Amino acid sequence: MKCSRCGAGTVDQIKTWPTVRISRNSKEALILTTGLYECRSCKTRFRAVVERRKMDLKDAMDKIRNMEAQLTLATRERTQLEERVKALDGVDLEIASGEIFALLGPSSRSSG
Asked: Does residue 110 or residue 44 have the better pLDDT?
């Protein structure tokens, strides 16, 4: 990648993001990955397309369905974890340090 202003070949990638373009008459989507770059020489920031790929809309819909299924599963898991936290919220977990050492045994005390 070269700087669009000075032509130097030393540029740093700052971030990237995907953009989807769908033609009204096409059954394909064009997925562009765009990057923001900064030239080390002249400090100019510029955008450039990093990757272009086509995706059939059927494949895109399958991917969306898969992501929805993953989101549903993650939501269920979060709900279960929240329920477990609520159940543990009533349990008193505070134990005096002396009691902890007594439970662990004499080898757990450090000399010092």
From this structure: 44
Query: Which residue type, as a one-letter code, is found at position 112?
Result: G
Torsion region of 89: left, alpha or beta (phi above 0 gives left; psi -120 to 50 gives alpha): alpha
DSSP H or E segment with residue 48: strand 45-56
What is the three-class DSSP state of 60? helix
User: Taking the model in full, what pTM does it have?
Assistant: 0.48
Higher pLDDT, 87 or 51: 51
3-class DSSP state of 38: strand
Q: Which token pair is 23?
A: 């033609």
Q: How far apart are CA 10 and CA 48, in angstroms?
A: 14
**CB of 30 closer than 8 Å to CB of 54:** yes
Name the more confident of 44 and 94: 44
Strands 45-56 and 28-39: antiparallel
